Amino acid sequence: MQTSGLLKLTIATLLGLALLIGLGVWQLQRLEWKEGIISRIEARTERKPMSLQQAIALTREGGNTAYYPVRAEGRFHHSRERYLYTLSLEGEPGWHVITPLETVDGIFVLVDRGFVPDALRDPSSRRLGQIEEVVTVTGLVRTPEEQSVFIPDNDDKANQWFSRDLPAMARSMFPGGTVQVAPFFLEAGASDVPGGWPEAARPGSSSITTTCNMPSLGSAWRCAWW
Protein backbone atom coordinates (compact mmCIF):
# COMPACT_ATOMS: atom_id res chain seq x y z
CA MET A 1 0.00 0.00 0.00
CA GLN A 2 2.85 2.35 0.87
CA THR A 3 4.56 1.62 -2.47
CA SER A 4 1.29 2.28 -4.32
CA GLY A 5 0.89 5.61 -2.54
CA LEU A 6 4.43 6.68 -3.41
CA LEU A 7 3.86 5.70 -7.04
CA LYS A 8 0.70 7.80 -7.23
CA LEU A 9 2.50 10.74 -5.63
CA THR A 10 5.39 10.40 -8.08
CA ILE A 11 3.02 10.29 -11.07
CA ALA A 12 1.11 13.32 -9.79
CA THR A 13 4.38 15.20 -9.26
CA LEU A 14 5.61 14.37 -12.75
CA LEU A 15 2.29 15.42 -14.28
CA GLY A 16 2.37 18.68 -12.35
CA LEU A 17 5.95 19.30 -13.42
CA ALA A 18 5.08 18.61 -17.06
CA LEU A 19 2.15 21.02 -16.80
CA LEU A 20 4.34 23.75 -15.32
CA ILE A 21 6.98 23.24 -18.03
CA GLY A 22 4.28 23.38 -20.69
CA LEU A 23 2.87 26.61 -19.25
CA GLY A 24 6.36 28.09 -19.09
CA VAL A 25 7.04 27.26 -22.73
CA TRP A 26 3.63 28.67 -23.73
CA GLN A 27 4.34 31.91 -21.85
CA LEU A 28 7.73 32.27 -23.54
CA GLN A 29 6.16 31.67 -26.95
CA ARG A 30 3.42 34.19 -26.17
CA LEU A 31 6.01 36.73 -25.02
CA GLU A 32 7.93 36.25 -28.27
CA TRP A 33 4.69 36.65 -30.23
CA LYS A 34 3.80 39.87 -28.35
CA GLU A 35 7.29 41.28 -28.80
CA GLY A 36 7.06 40.55 -32.52
CA ILE A 37 3.77 42.43 -32.76
CA ILE A 38 5.18 45.38 -30.81
CA SER A 39 8.24 45.49 -33.08
CA ARG A 40 6.05 45.52 -36.20
CA ILE A 41 3.84 48.26 -34.74
CA GLU A 42 6.85 50.38 -33.81
CA ALA A 43 8.31 49.93 -37.29
CA ARG A 44 5.04 51.05 -38.87
CA THR A 45 4.62 54.11 -36.67
CA GLU A 46 8.03 55.38 -37.77
CA ARG A 47 7.10 55.40 -41.45
CA LYS A 48 6.46 58.56 -43.40
CA PRO A 49 2.73 59.40 -43.22
CA MET A 50 0.68 58.45 -46.26
CA SER A 51 -2.30 60.42 -47.49
CA LEU A 52 -5.81 59.51 -46.40
CA GLN A 53 -6.69 58.55 -49.97
CA GLN A 54 -3.70 56.18 -50.16
CA ALA A 55 -4.63 54.54 -46.85
CA ILE A 56 -8.25 54.07 -47.93
CA ALA A 57 -7.20 52.53 -51.25
CA LEU A 58 -4.72 50.19 -49.56
CA THR A 59 -7.30 49.09 -46.99
CA ARG A 60 -9.94 48.39 -49.63
CA GLU A 61 -7.42 46.32 -51.59
CA GLY A 62 -7.11 44.07 -48.54
CA GLY A 63 -3.93 45.57 -47.14
CA ASN A 64 -3.33 45.67 -43.40
CA THR A 65 -2.95 49.37 -42.61
CA ALA A 66 -3.22 49.11 -38.81
CA TYR A 67 -0.89 51.59 -37.07
CA TYR A 68 0.29 53.18 -40.32
CA PRO A 69 0.75 56.95 -39.99
CA VAL A 70 -1.79 58.85 -42.11
CA ARG A 71 -2.28 62.55 -42.76
CA ALA A 72 -5.61 64.21 -43.52
CA GLU A 73 -6.74 67.81 -43.80
CA GLY A 74 -10.22 69.11 -43.15
CA ARG A 75 -12.69 70.42 -40.57
CA PHE A 76 -14.05 68.69 -37.49
CA HIS A 77 -17.81 68.23 -37.09
CA HIS A 78 -17.88 68.62 -33.32
CA SER A 79 -21.67 68.35 -33.11
CA ARG A 80 -21.32 64.69 -34.15
CA GLU A 81 -18.88 63.68 -31.41
CA ARG A 82 -19.12 60.13 -30.13
CA TYR A 83 -17.73 58.86 -26.84
CA LEU A 84 -15.83 55.59 -26.40
CA TYR A 85 -15.48 54.44 -22.79
CA THR A 86 -11.99 53.95 -21.44
CA LEU A 87 -9.79 54.28 -18.36
CA SER A 88 -6.89 56.69 -18.08
CA LEU A 89 -3.40 55.46 -17.20
CA GLU A 90 -4.25 56.38 -13.60
CA GLY A 91 -7.44 54.31 -13.70
CA GLU A 92 -9.78 57.29 -14.02
CA PRO A 93 -12.96 56.53 -16.02
CA GLY A 94 -13.52 58.70 -19.05
CA TRP A 95 -14.05 58.77 -22.79
CA HIS A 96 -12.19 58.86 -26.06
CA VAL A 97 -13.65 61.69 -28.13
CA ILE A 98 -14.36 60.39 -31.65
CA THR A 99 -15.00 63.26 -34.05
CA PRO A 100 -15.64 63.07 -37.81
CA LEU A 101 -13.23 65.10 -39.92
CA GLU A 102 -14.48 66.19 -43.35
CA THR A 103 -11.71 66.56 -45.91
CA VAL A 104 -11.68 68.95 -48.85
CA ASP A 105 -12.61 65.95 -51.03
CA GLY A 106 -15.79 65.38 -49.04
CA ILE A 107 -14.47 62.19 -47.40
CA PHE A 108 -15.05 61.70 -43.68
CA VAL A 109 -12.63 59.97 -41.33
CA LEU A 110 -13.47 59.31 -37.69
CA VAL A 111 -10.68 60.81 -35.59
CA ASP A 112 -9.97 59.69 -32.04
CA ARG A 113 -8.89 63.05 -30.65
CA GLY A 114 -7.97 61.66 -27.25
CA PHE A 115 -9.18 61.27 -23.67
CA VAL A 116 -11.48 63.39 -21.52
CA PRO A 117 -12.55 62.54 -17.96
CA ASP A 118 -16.24 61.93 -17.43
CA ALA A 119 -16.68 65.41 -15.95
CA LEU A 120 -15.54 66.93 -19.27
CA ARG A 121 -17.55 64.77 -21.60
CA ASP A 122 -19.93 67.69 -22.32
CA PRO A 123 -18.30 69.77 -25.11
CA SER A 124 -19.47 72.99 -23.43
CA SER A 125 -17.00 72.29 -20.62
CA ARG A 126 -14.04 72.33 -23.04
CA ARG A 127 -14.95 74.92 -25.65
CA LEU A 128 -11.34 75.95 -26.33
CA GLY A 129 -10.55 72.48 -27.63
CA GLN A 130 -13.39 72.55 -30.17
CA ILE A 131 -11.19 73.75 -33.03
CA GLU A 132 -13.22 75.30 -35.85
CA GLU A 133 -10.40 76.05 -38.30
CA VAL A 134 -9.14 73.75 -41.04
CA VAL A 135 -6.70 71.33 -39.44
CA THR A 136 -4.11 68.86 -40.63
CA VAL A 137 -4.34 65.64 -38.64
CA THR A 138 -1.47 63.19 -38.56
CA GLY A 139 -2.38 60.02 -36.72
CA LEU A 140 -2.26 56.24 -36.65
CA VAL A 141 -4.75 53.96 -38.38
CA ARG A 142 -6.84 51.98 -35.90
CA THR A 143 -9.01 49.21 -37.29
CA PRO A 144 -12.61 48.61 -36.16
CA GLU A 145 -13.24 46.14 -33.33
CA GLU A 146 -15.64 43.22 -33.21
CA GLN A 147 -18.06 42.94 -30.31
CA SER A 148 -17.13 40.25 -27.78
CA VAL A 149 -19.01 38.66 -24.89
CA PHE A 150 -16.78 40.51 -22.42
CA ILE A 151 -17.60 43.99 -23.78
CA PRO A 152 -20.92 45.74 -22.98
CA ASP A 153 -23.24 46.54 -25.86
CA ASN A 154 -22.87 49.96 -27.43
CA ASP A 155 -25.72 52.37 -26.70
CA ASP A 156 -25.96 54.78 -29.62
CA LYS A 157 -28.99 56.60 -28.16
CA ALA A 158 -27.10 57.43 -24.96
CA ASN A 159 -23.92 57.99 -26.99
CA GLN A 160 -22.03 55.46 -24.90
CA TRP A 161 -19.68 53.23 -26.87
CA PHE A 162 -17.59 50.37 -25.55
CA SER A 163 -16.06 49.03 -28.77
CA ARG A 164 -14.79 50.61 -31.99
CA ASP A 165 -17.78 49.57 -34.09
CA LEU A 166 -17.12 51.84 -37.04
CA PRO A 167 -20.20 51.00 -39.17
CA ALA A 168 -22.58 51.52 -36.24
CA MET A 169 -20.82 54.68 -35.11
CA ALA A 170 -20.87 56.12 -38.64
CA ARG A 171 -24.58 55.31 -38.99
CA SER A 172 -25.30 57.13 -35.74
CA MET A 173 -23.36 60.18 -36.96
CA PHE A 174 -24.87 60.18 -40.45
CA PRO A 175 -28.32 58.55 -40.30
CA GLY A 176 -28.93 59.09 -44.01
CA GLY A 177 -25.88 57.02 -44.92
CA THR A 178 -25.09 59.19 -47.93
CA VAL A 179 -21.54 60.23 -46.99
CA GLN A 180 -18.27 58.45 -47.71
CA VAL A 181 -16.51 57.34 -44.51
CA ALA A 182 -12.97 55.94 -44.35
CA PRO A 183 -12.93 52.24 -43.32
CA PHE A 184 -10.79 52.88 -40.24
CA PHE A 185 -10.32 55.26 -37.33
CA LEU A 186 -7.49 57.76 -37.18
CA GLU A 187 -5.95 58.02 -33.72
CA ALA A 188 -4.36 61.42 -33.20
CA GLY A 189 -1.81 61.91 -30.48
CA ALA A 190 -0.18 65.16 -29.46
CA SER A 191 -0.13 67.87 -26.83
CA ASP A 192 -1.00 71.51 -26.19
CA VAL A 193 -4.62 71.34 -27.33
CA PRO A 194 -6.28 74.68 -26.53
CA GLY A 195 -7.69 74.25 -23.04
CA GLY A 196 -5.85 70.94 -22.66
CA TRP A 197 -8.74 68.65 -23.69
CA PRO A 198 -9.07 66.17 -25.30
CA GLU A 199 -5.76 64.82 -24.06
CA ALA A 200 -3.71 62.90 -26.60
CA ALA A 201 -4.44 59.18 -26.78
CA ARG A 202 -0.82 58.42 -27.70
CA PRO A 203 1.40 61.32 -26.65
CA GLY A 204 4.12 62.08 -29.17
CA SER A 205 2.93 59.62 -31.81
CA SER A 206 1.22 62.10 -34.09
CA SER A 207 0.06 65.67 -34.34
CA ILE A 208 -2.60 68.12 -35.42
CA THR A 209 -1.74 71.50 -36.85
CA THR A 210 -4.17 74.29 -37.60
CA THR A 211 -4.02 76.35 -40.77
CA CYS A 212 -4.18 79.98 -39.61
CA ASN A 213 -4.98 82.61 -42.22
CA MET A 214 -2.71 85.64 -41.83
CA PRO A 215 -3.97 88.22 -44.38
CA SER A 216 -1.34 90.76 -43.37
CA LEU A 217 1.38 88.28 -44.29
CA GLY A 218 -0.32 87.16 -47.49
CA SER A 219 0.06 83.44 -46.76
CA ALA A 220 -1.20 80.58 -44.62
CA TRP A 221 0.80 79.68 -41.54
CA ARG A 222 0.92 76.39 -39.70
CA CYS A 223 0.17 76.88 -36.02
CA ALA A 224 1.03 73.85 -33.90
CA TRP A 225 -1.89 72.86 -31.70
CA TRP A 226 -1.10 69.18 -31.09
Automatic annotation (TrEMBL):
Protein name per Swiss-Prot or TrEMBL: SURF1-like protein
UniProt keyword list: Cell membrane, Membrane, Transmembrane, Transmembrane helix
Keyword match tRNA processing: no
Main location: membrane
Localization, UniProt: Cell membrane; Membrane
GO annotations of cellular component type: plasma membrane
Keyword Cytoplasm: no
Any matching Pfam family: SURF1
